[in-house]
Write a structure and sequence with these properties.
- By secondary structure, the protein is of the alpha/beta class.
- Helix 9 crosses helix 14 (392-406).
- It starts with 10 loop residues before the first strand and ends in a 7-residue tail after the last helix.
- It has helices spanning 22-34, 53-60, 78-84, 96-104, 110-117, 133-137, 139-150, 176-187, 221-232, 260-271, 316-326, 344-354, 365-368, 392-406; strands at 11-16, 38-43, 88-94, 125-129, 154-155, 159-162, 168-172, 196-201, 206-209, 212-214, 236-241, 253-256, 276-279, 286-288, 310-312, 333-340, 359-364, 373-380, 383-391.
- Bound molecules: cytidine-5'-triphosphate.
Amino acid sequence: MSDAQQLSGRHVLLGLSGGIACYKIAELTRLLVKAGAMVQVVMTEAAQAFITPVTMQALSNRPVYTSQWDAREDNNMAHINLSREADLMLIAPASADFIAKLAQGRADELLSLTALARPLDRCPLAVAPAMNREMWAHPATQRNVAQLRADGALVFGPDHGDQACGEVGDGRMLEASELFDEVVAFFQPKVLAGKKLLLTAGPTFEPIDPVRGLTNLSSGKMGFAVAQAAAQAGADVTLVAGPVHLPTPRGVTRIDVQTAQQMFDAVLPRASAFDVFIGTAAVADWRPVQAHAHKVKKQTGDSSVLSFDLTENPDILAAVAAQAAQDPRHQPFCVGFAAESQDLARHARDKLVRKKVQLVVGNLGPATFGRDDNALLLVDASGDRELPRADKLSLARELVRDIARRLGRVDQI
Ligand code: CTP
């Protein structure tokens, strides 16, 4: 699902202040570098008590800066030079003390000096707080964090959970993978900022009895990638997911359902509050008329065929589109998916007309279910557009841009 080089060409200035969470930054650095970012590490003296510059240099592939008196720079001005090439300055972990320094604009060592000397318009600042829950909850810290936000800084986390001191609460630094997702999201154009997007994903499961059911091969990966891309593009995303084992993309509200009827019940009452609805789910078309209360047993000596009646499930996408047609705002903008095994363009166009939606995204089911890549065909009233085979996250980003254009967000693309 991932776009392997999604940070290619990005320059991240990564500052570590003192805290046990420093160990997570080794992994974060690895993830950033693997995604193509150039990572320049700066460490305070306190950070070096938790992790060594040797580790950080080896992982970032660049010499680490620890002192404002570093004579390696020709002009002896590391605090100026370091931020001039950077696209983002991330301080992680950001201790309570370091946040206080940033809030006051103090600059008595290299990292705080660099933060103060950075060009505000070209190198935004993000901090990932890491501290004990009492320190986080203290009015002084809350005041300092509010001041940082007012000064334009982004605040990643903190999380709630077990703390190194043995207490449980708010203040724990985000995990490396979560910080990585925040950095990737930061670099995505916010083409859907202020928009609310609802989508369905995955298969549905229609019970036959308590242990068996009808389902299909959809993995949910494409829908989850669309949810992730839309959230990273600034949308407020709600994802109604069938039974899949995929992590919820950061910032996305998830509602888990099992059957098509439950998916319908989760979607319909909410839909009119959204700007966009995307049906990526492979909804089972039929369900057993009656689910058995107990496991259906084999009859010994009976080799006859088991049969049961099926009834059709409600069509969620068509129902949302019909409801939107009644809405004077024509809301939400409806996008369907078509998973076909052949004749993609014809079937996709047929669904566009039959379900009365504005856009249908066609893909060949057997060639994509469970895989990390896909190829899409965008079909609307005016024609077709192919999105050639690529990883699902890259395709999802392209689809999000396409939808943003249709919503009139052309200026931001
Ligand atoms: N869909 C839905 N509710 C259903 C069936 C489908 O919301 N009960 C949505 C899917 O999420 C998708 C689109 O309709 O966005 C097309 O789904 P697909 O399964 O390809 O088509 P069907 O309508 O089931 O038609 P067919 O089985 O004939 O291909």
